[in-house]
Structure formats: C-alpha cells, structure tokens
Design a protein that fits this description.
3 strands
Amino acid sequence: MIRDDVFIHVVTLPDSVKSAVTICEDGYNIFINKKITHEQMQEAYAHEMYHIDNGHCEDDVDVDKIEGELYEKERCRDY
C-alpha cells in the first residue's frame, strides 16, 4: 500500500546506521543509508514501516527496548 504521509530519503548515514525514521509535519521521513545494498534498503524500509505502523514513533516510546525486541524476534526467526 502506498502512503502519502511517508517520505523516503536515500542519504549518506554513518556505516553503523542502515535507516532511521522521524516524524514531520506531513507525516514521516524515512532516511535510508545510500551505502547499503538494494536488498538491505528494502529490509530497512520494511523495518521503519513496521515502526510507523505500530506507533513506535511516539514521544513516550523506549526506542532501545523496541529495537532490542525486534532484534531478538529477527534473530529467532533465522533459526
């Protein structure tokens, strides 16, 4: 589904950062590191959309906790 409130930016980010999402006046900005592969970009986009769709961009959300939970879920899925 295409959303008109999500804006994608392919930019240079630190090597340790694949992507990030921020809230903007018109919706959300997803920043994807231009140094990663196309497949990694698709995964990064899906990852950030998961955060948007699940309300993880709100002020009172513990980002480190959510990222840890997602990491564990993805790690367990690979087994």
